[in-house]
Design goal:
Structural class: mainly alpha
Strand content: under 5%
Number of strands: 0
Shape: elongated
Distance between the termini: 55 Å
Oligomer: single chain
Helix content: 55-70%
Length: 75
């Protein structure tokens, strides 16, 4: 929530809108703020951010595997 607060206050946009931006967008905005104030951004690099966003998009498209069916024991 702190990251969302930083972005919302820096760009004067509602936190709800920041959350809609997506992980890559949020991290890119944070990197821009850090560069503007000569701070080294904490967390993943821009390339790593893009990879995380791509993985999240892929993961949302993959159906979740069904649980293993339990076999009944023969008596």
């Amino acid at each position: 929530m702190t990251l969302i607060d930083v972005l919302a206050s820096e760009y004067t946009i509602p936190p709800r809108q920041v959350r809609r931006e997506g992980l890559a967008g949020i991290l890119a905005l944070y990197s821009a703020i850090a560069a503007r104030y000569d701070m080294k951004p904490k967390g993943p690099t821009y390339v790593e951010q893009e990879m995380l966003d791509a993985l999240a998009r892929m993961e949302s498209r993959i159906p979740k595997p069904e649980g293993k069916k339990r076999r009944r024991r023969k008596r």
